[in-house]
C-alpha cells in the first residue's frame, strides 16, 4: 500500500472522529432540553390522575349519602366538608400542595331548578339527579432559568381541571 493511500485513509478517519464529536454534542444538547419537558408533562399527568381519582371518590361519597342526611342543612354541610377534606387529603398524598389548589366545587344537578348546588334542605328540591365534583389546580413548572423558560415554553404555569359526575344513588 502506498504512502498516499495511507495518508488519505488517516485524513478520513480524523474527519470521522470530528463529525462524531459534533453529532454527540448535538444529541446531548437535544437531550438536555427534552428530558425535563418529558418529566414536566409526566408530572402534570400524575397531577391530573390524582385529581380525577379524588374527584371521583368525593362524588361517589356524596352520591351515596342517604337523602335523609341531604335534607338536613347541618348534616349536608358536614357531608360536603368531609368530601372536601377527602379531596384535599388525596391531593396532598399525591404531592399537590394546598397553595396549588385553586378551586374545589361540589355541585348537585337538581331536576326542578337550573341551580346547581347541594343545599337540598334549603331549596326543598327533590333529590338531586347527579353529583359533580370539579377540582382546579395551578401547575407551576420551572425547568430552566426564567429567560430560557419564557423563550421555550411561554407561561410558567397552567391550570389542570378534573371533573367527575356520578348519578345520585339514594
Q: Could you name the key traits of this structure?
A:
170 residues, alpha+beta, 3-stranded antiparallel beta sheet, 57% helix, rod-shaped
> How many separate structural domains?
1
Unreliable segments (pLDDT under 50, ≥5 consecutive)? none
**Average pLDDT over all residues:** 78
Helix content: 55-70%
Distance between the termini: 93 Å
Which strand order do you get reading across the main beta sheet? 1-2-3
Task: Please state the structural category.
Answer: alpha+beta
- Assign an overall shape: rod-shaped
How much of the sequence is in beta strands? 15-25%
Q: What gyration radius follows from the Cα positions, in whole Å?
A: 28 Å
The biggest sheet, with number of strands, parallel, antiparallel or mixed sense and barrel status, is: 3 strands, antiparallel
Give the beta-strand count. 3
- What is the tally of helical segments? 5
Amino acid at each position: 500500500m502506498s504512502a498516499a493511500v495511507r495518508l488519505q485513509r488517516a485524513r478520513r478517519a480524523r474527519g470521522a472522529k470530528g463529525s462524531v464529536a459534533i453529532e454527540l454534542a448535538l444529541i446531548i444538547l437535544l437531550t438536555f432540553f427534552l428530558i425535563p419537558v418529558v418529566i414536566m408533562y409526566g408530572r402534570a399527568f400524575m397531577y391530573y390522575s390524582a385529581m380525577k381519582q379524588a374527584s371521583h371518590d368525593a362524588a361517589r361519597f356524596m352520591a351515596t349519602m342517604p337523602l335523609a342526611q341531604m335534607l338536613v342543612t347541618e348534616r349536608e354541610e358536614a357531608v360536603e366538608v368531609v368530601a372536601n377534606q377527602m379531596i384535599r387529603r388525596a391531593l396532598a398524598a399525591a404531592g399537590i400542595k394546598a397553595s396549588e389548589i385553586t378551586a374545589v366545587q361540589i355541585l348537585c344537578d337538581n331536576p326542578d331548578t337550573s341551580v346547581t348546588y347541594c343545599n337540598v334542605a334549603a331549596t326543598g328540591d327533590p333529590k338531586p339527579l347527579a353529583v359533580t365534583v370539579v377540582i382546579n389546580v395551578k401547575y407551576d413548572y420551572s425547568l430552566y432559568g426564567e429567560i430560557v423558560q419564557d423563550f421555550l415554553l411561554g407561561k410558567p404555569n397552567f391550570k389542570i381541571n378534573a371533573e367527575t359526575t356520578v348519578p345520585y344513588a339514594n
